[in-house]
Amino acid sequence: CLPSTSLFTCRKLAGCTLFITGASRGIGKAIALKAAKDGANIVIAAKTAEPHPTLPGTIYTAAEEIEAAGGKALPCIVNVREEQQIISAVEKAVKTFGGIDILVNNASAISLTGTLETATKKVNLMMDVNVRGTYLTSKACLPYLRKSKNPHILNLSPPMNLNPMWFKNHCAYTISKYGMSMCVLGMAEEFRGEVAVNALWPKTAIHTAAMDMLGGAGIEKQCRKTDILADAAYCILTKPKTFTGNFIIDEVLLREEGVKDFDVYAIAPGHPLMPDFFLDEKKFSGSQQEGADGAKVKTEAAAAEPSGPVAETFRVIQGAVTEEYVRSTQGVFQFELSGDGGGTWYIDLKSKGGSAGFGKPPVTADVVMSMSSTDFVKMFTGKLKPTLAFMSGKLRIKGNMALAIKLEKMLSQLNAKL
C-alpha cells in the first residue's frame, strides 16, 4: 500500500473477495462500492433479481456499478432464509474467485411493532433473516475464511444495550438485532486468532430506501449518507485479524481515525440528526457539531470496549487518575497487549484531567509498552514488578525510560485500589 495523504486511498482490499448479503442496495451496496474502488471481488448475495415495485436496484444493476467502480462482481440470488441458496452462492464464489476473505452480514428485516401488533410471519421473517441468516451465512463462509490471510466477518448490528426502552416498542426486532450481535460475541471468541468478528452500527439514522418507507417524506434531512458506514467498514476490514470482538459505532471510529469533517456525510449539512436505535444519549453524547474533543470521543468509544480483566483494570485506572498524577507524571503511555482482551490501550497522564482506555491515545505516546494481557494485569495488581518484567523479557519498552520509571511509582500507589 503506497503512502497517501488521504485515509482512504490505499488499495488495501485489491484482490480480496467480499461476500456481502443484501448488497443490491443501501448500506450493503455502499460497502461493496468502497471495496470495489480498491479492485476487490464482490459477491452480491441478495434476493432482488427482478426490479422491486418501490425499492431501487437489483443484484444485476449493483454488479454493473461495482464493475464500473473498478471491482469484479458476482451477482447471486440469495434469500438468507434458504440455507441451500447460501451454500450454493458460497461454492460459486470460491469457484469464481478462489476463496472468501471477508463476509459482511448486512441483510436485515425490520418491523417496528409491539408484541400484539407483530404478525407471526413478521416475527419469523426477522428471526430468520437477522439471526438465523447471519448465523448460517457465517457458518457457510467460515471454512474458507479460515484459509484467508486476513479474514473478517462484519455484522451490521448494534452494541447490546439492555435498557428496557429499546425492547418495549419493538421487542421482536430488538431480539433479532441483538441475536446478530450475540453471533459477534460468540464467534469472535470461538475463532479468536483465526478470523476477526466485529459489529458496526451507525450513530445516527442512515438514509436508505428502507428509511424512506419507515420515516416518510422529509426524513432524509435528519439522516447521513451510507458513505459513513462504508468508510467505517473499510477501516475495520483493513485492520489485522487481531482486531476482533468489538462493537463499533461509525462516527466514534472515524474520529479516532482522524476524520474531522462529518458534514460531508450529512444529507442536509447543519440540520439536526436523528440518533439511531439502541444508543442511549448519555452513552453517545456529543455529535457532529462539536469538535473532536479527545475526552468525549473516549467516553463514546467506551461502549465498544472489550470486557474482561484488562478492561476492568483500565476502568479502575481511569477512576483513579487525578490532576495530581497528571501534573507529576506528564507522560502518555501506550500498551500493545497480546492475548485475551488485548489490543491497543492507553493511559494519558499529560492532557488536562488525564484519561485511560481502549484504542490509541488522544495524543502521541511518549512510551510504548508491549506485553501479554495476563502479565499486564499481574503488573497492575502488584503481582509482577515492572522492573522484573522488563529484565525477564516479558515487558518491552520503547521511548522515554524515565517516564516508564515514573509510571512504576504510580503503580505502587494504585495497587491498593486494584
Automatic annotation (TrEMBL):
<feature type="domain" description="SCP2">
    <location>
        <begin position="322"/>
        <end position="411"/>
    </location>
</feature>
<keyword id="KW-0521">NADP</keyword>
<protein>
    <recommendedName>
        <fullName>Hydroxysteroid dehydrogenase-like protein 2</fullName>
    </recommendedName>
</protein>
<dbReference type="InterPro" id="IPR036291">
    <property type="entry name" value="NAD(P)-bd_dom_sf"/>
</dbReference>
<dbReference type="InterPro" id="IPR002347">
    <property type="entry name" value="SDR_fam"/>
</dbReference>
<dbReference type="Pfam" id="PF00106">
    <property type="entry name" value="adh_short"/>
</dbReference>
<dbReference type="Pfam" id="PF02036">
    <property type="entry name" value="SCP2"/>
</dbReference>
<keyword id="KW-0496">Mitochondrion</keyword>
<dbReference type="GO" id="GO:0005777">
    <property type="term" value="C:peroxisome"/>
</dbReference>
<dbReference type="GO" id="GO:0016491">
    <property type="term" value="F:oxidoreductase activity"/>
</dbReference>
<comment type="similarity">
    <text>Belongs to the short-chain dehydrogenases/reductases (SDR) family.</text>
</comment>
<dbReference type="GO" id="GO:0005739">
    <property type="term" value="C:mitochondrion"/>
</dbReference>
<dbReference type="InterPro" id="IPR036527">
    <property type="entry name" value="SCP2_sterol-bd_dom_sf"/>
</dbReference>
<keyword id="KW-0576">Peroxisome</keyword>
<dbReference type="InterPro" id="IPR051935">
    <property type="entry name" value="HSDL2"/>
</dbReference>
<dbReference type="InterPro" id="IPR003033">
    <property type="entry name" value="SCP2_sterol-bd_dom"/>
</dbReference>
<keyword id="KW-0560">Oxidoreductase</keyword>
